[in-house]
Specification:
The complex is a heterodimer. Chain A has no helices and eleven strands. Chain A is mainly β. Chain A starts with a strand and ends with a strand. In chain A, 34% of the residues are buried. Chain B is mostly beta strands. Helix content of chain B is 0%, strand content 59%. In chain B, a hairpin with a 2-residue loop joins β6 and β7. Classes of the chains: A mainly beta, B mainly beta. The interface between A and B is medium-sized, with 25 and 25 residues.
Chain lengths: 115, 107
């Protein structure tokens, strides 16, 4: 496989459930990102990892918990979500750390619906 | 605060009817401006990076240009398969995206 792969592609969960989103990049990149995309809104950066260390957390609620066990894998653990958390969650990776002029490559996203 | 504004929000074109999408930005210390294409239900697909005013890049029917305050994505003789949402993003401290322009090309 090449590029950035996200699983699952679709997820429906109740507000009391716990689930995890998975992202794997096959590009040898050093930085990975989680973005949230809601209708009519720009992509919102949630978390950034550079060389497996979290470098940014844009005031995301604690019901979202990221994990980066190595430079190729990124997880987003979800618990006690709210209906307004329903969105497309996108993972991305870049060769160089954030703040440099390097393009990000995105996965296909996980469409999350909270019921 | 970095800001990116894309216009129009939506654009309908007849096949073969050329047009331009606009991305205006306010950022301190631009390191790069990026264009992405996004199909429904999918992740953004990287198209171009522009670094300095006056720079131009082309790919098939698409041409991106950059000035000190805005970027244009010119679409020449579009085809239905060019229908997508086109996203612009600027890189300073972090990557800031606009809301996108939804392009529909009618056969």
């Amino acid at each position: 496989e090449t590029g950035v792969t996200q699983t699952p592609r679709h997820l429906v969960m109740g507000m009391t459930n716990k689930k995890s989103l998975k992202c794997e990049q096959h590009l040898g990149h050093n930085a990975m990102y989680w973005y949230k995309q809601s209708a009519k809104k720009p992509l919102e950066l949630m978390f950034v990892y550079s060389l497996e260390e979290r470098v940014e957390n844009n005031s995301v609620p604690s019901r979202f918990s990221p994990e980066c066990p190595n430079s190729s894998h990124l997880f987003l653990h979800l618990h006690t979500l709210q209906p307004e958390d329903s969105a497309l969650y996108l993972c991305a990776s870049s060769q160089d750390p954030p703040g440099t002029d390097t393009e990000a490559f995105f996965g296909q996203g996980t469409r999350l619906t909270v019921v | 605060e970095d800001q990116v504004t894309q216009s129009p929000e939506a654009l309908r074109l007849q096949e073969g009817e050329s047009s331009s999408l606009n991305c205006s930005y306010t950022v301190s210390g631009l390191r790069g401006l990026f264009w992405y294409r996004q199909d429904p239900g999918k992740g953004p697909e990287f198209l171009f990076t522009l670094y300095s005013a006056g720079e131009e890049k082309e790919k098939e029917r698409l041409k991106a240009t950059l000035t000190k305050k805005e970027s244009f994505l010119h679409i020449t003789a579009p085809k239905p398969e060019d229908s997508a949402t086109y996203l612009c993003a600027v890189q300073a401290g972090q990557l800031t995206f606009g809301k996108g322009t939804k392009l529909s090309v009618i056969p």
